[in-house]
Amino acid sequence: MLKEFRDFIARGNVMDMAVGIIIGAAFTAIVASLVDDLVNPLIGLFVGGIDFSGVSFGLGDAQFMLGNFINAVIKFVIIAWVVFLLVKGVNRVKDATTKAEPEPEAPPPPPQEALLAEIRDLLKARGA
Fold it and tell me: Any residues with CB less than 8 A from the CB of 71 and at least 6 apart, and which?
């Protein structure tokens, strides 16, 4: 059982997924800083200095943090846009590499088929 687990972990796709998760977590921290430190103050300039993180309303004992939700939506849109650009770039690179490879030519037909096709064409030309 331990050997099977080691083989499972050693597979490329599991390691790729682990690297993706780690990079994704680091990327999330960068996007969070981008939104909190750059985008929100910039938006705040246009809407009168409102800091979204402080926007909330209460209903009874419940406190609804609307600003935190707006921040999460902005972060999601930025991450989705960057992922879209990455996928688009990867697809462009894949398309460029597949176009560079010429398609293999079809092998010539066997001599019997070539002879039969020639006979067929001669019969068509004679009108038979």
Answer: 35, 36, 40, 52, 53
At 1-33, the pLDDT tens digits run 888 877 776 776 777 788 888 888 888 888 778
Tokens of 7: 């083989």
Domain count, the chain: 1
Is the model's pLDDT at 63 over the cut of 80?
yes
CATH code at 50? 1.10.1200.120
Instruction: Name the amino acid, one letter, at 22.
Output: I
The DSSP symbol for 7 reads H
* Cβ-Cβ contacts under 8 Å for 124 (sequence gap 6 or more): none
